[in-house]
UniProtKB/TrEMBL annotation:
Gene Ontology CC terms: membrane
GO MF, one annotated term: oxidoreductase activity, acting on paired donors, with oxidation of a pair of donors resulting in the reduction of molecular oxygen to two molecules of water
Compositionally biased tracts (Basic and acidic residues): 432-452
Domain Fatty acid desaturase: 70-214, 289-385
Protein name: Fatty acid desaturase
Organism, as annotated: Mycolicibacter sinensis (strain JDM601)
Length: 464
């Protein structure tokens, strides 16, 4: 069911927002009160599995002369990069695992296998995006400042090219996010010193250099070197192309004497080395591309489908804690999928739960989802969710339509109703049973607690 009804923020009373804030706080408190070995085991297991997949991929690519080994190695690298980016990097740097006080798995020290520096990303994403979610003019992730994805955003002729911008952002996502994190416009407006911009650019250059050396020079060279050693040990018995590229060039100079002898020696050794190097380089490039496309799809499907609301600065002026929760709830959308889908999407298929509790371990989102739905049903709030294909298509329909002038807001979902809708009066929510587990002033209470760089800033408790 869809409707063009006004934003739920406009029809909830102060008393309802106050009660709603307490219920959302109660869910957070209950989960954080019971975090322990099960959660620690989960993240340690994901880290271990991700590293094992990396090793498997690299070993397979040592034999990348075999098409089967190349395909399997590339698939392993792609999966490892997706896990590292989504379930590990994104969530660890959100502070979701800071409660463990693990010196190696902490938002203050973790860095990820992508072009963005941890410091710039945490400010741009954790603070700006999660504090000002979907507020036009405040949330820089709303179209990433290169696309018009809401009809309330003013049209400009440059938006005619946004389908192209979106395509380029898809295949170059890690680099686009890295540049986006710098916020050049803030420097142009005088809100950010250019010295800070230069420092951030220096950090990106360092990350870019490390990424390029690792993926496009280092690992291909290691694979090629391993092939050369194996070929020498086996006295040239490994199958390889007949001629080397360097040998062919030498023969153009001379096919006799020392040059000819050198060319013959290179033909015995280099063809496989060259081929292995190039195949490993191609595998790394393809794995990075697959990771970029996947991350772009998950993030866009969780933020920009038709179901989500955007807000003017006037709408959220003097926002209460309950209002902040509602804005997070209706400004995000979930993606339905299997348990494996949710792991490789960083559990960002539960984007609604993530925006409500960005510091909560991602493995808990599926457990609290029924409680969020219960609150939505009792307060007549939407719970935005849909299949991946549906979310992806609506996002890209908006990108293409809003490249042109005009456009109207798409119909929004009505209040959530569970499949087994209750017929009697509603009782207290499941979460309300835990309302008094932690006092409001407890340092772990609420989604705003700050562990080493997590800077989400909702209104404080007591400000409903």
């Amino acid at each position: 069911m869809t409707t063009t009804a006004e934003s739920p923020l406009a029809r909830l009373s102060e008393q309802e927002l106050e009660k709603l804030a307490k219920e959302f706080d109660a869910i957070h408190d209950e989960v954080f009160a019971e975090l322990g070995d099960r959660d620690r085991h989960y993240i340690k297991t994901v880290i271990s599995v991700q590293r094992q997949i990396v090793v498997a991929g690299r070993v397979l690519l040592l034999a990348s002369r075999s098409r089967t080994a190349w395909v399997l190695g590339t698939a392993c690298l792609s999966m490892a990069k997706i896990l590292e980016n989504m379930e590990l990097g994104h969530n660890i740097m959100h502070g979701q695992w800071d409660w463990m006080n693990d010196p190696d798995v902490h938002s203050s020290v973790w860095d990820w296998d992508t072009a963005s520096t941890a410091k710039a990303w945490k400010h741009s994403h954790n603070y700006i995006h999660h504090t000002y979610t979907n507020i036009r003019g405040k949330d820089r992730d709303l179209g990433y400042e290169i696309m018009r994805i809401d009809p309330n955003q003013p049209w400009h002729p440059v938006w005619l090219a946004q389908p192209l911008f979106n395509f380029l952002l898809t295949i170059l996502f890690e680099w686009g996010v890295a540049v986006h994190d710098i916020d050049f416009r803030a420097a142009q407006r005088g809100e950010k010193p250019w010295s800070e911009v230069r420092q951030e650019l220096k950090g990106i250059r360092g990350k870019a250099r490390a990424q390029i050396v690792k993926d496009y020079l280092g690992w291909p060279a290691i694979s090629a070197g391993a092939f050369a050693l194996a070929q020498l040990a086996l006295r040239g018995r490994i199958d390889q192309p007949a001629k080397s590229r360097v040998g062919r060039r030498l023969r153009k100079i001379s096919s006799k004497g020392r040059i000819g002898a050198t060319a013959n020696m290179l033909d015995r050794l280099l063809p496989g080395v060259e081929s292995t190097y190039l195949r490993t380089l191609a595998a790394d490039a393809l794995a990075n591309l697959i990771r970029n496309v996947w991350a772009h799809a998950i993030i866009f499907c969780g933020h920009f489908p038709d179901q989500t609301y955007t807000f003017s600065e006037e709408e959220v002026e003097n926002e209460t804690r309950g209002g902040w929760y509602v804005r997070q709830l209706i400004g995000a959308a979930n993606i339905e999928g299997s348990p494996l889908f949710h792991v490789i999407s960083g559990n960002l298929g539960y984007q609604v739960e993530h925006h409500l509790y960005p510091d909560m371990p991602s493995s808990r989102y599926s457990e609290i989802a029924p409680r969020i739905k219960d609150i939505c049903e009792r307060y007549a709030l939407p719970y935005n969710s849909g299949r991946f294909s549906k979310q992806w298509l609506t996002v890209h329909r908006s990108i293409f339509r809003l490249a042109f002038p005009g456009g109207k807001p798409r119909p929004k979902p009505g209040p959530y109703h569970s499949p087994e809708r209750r017929t009697g009066p509603g009782g207290p929510s499941e979460a309300s049973r835990f309302r008094d587990r932690l006092p409001a002033e407890h340092p772990d209470a609420g989604p705003e607690h700050d562990y080493g760089g997590v800077e989400v800033q909702p209104p404080p408790r007591g400000n409903a």
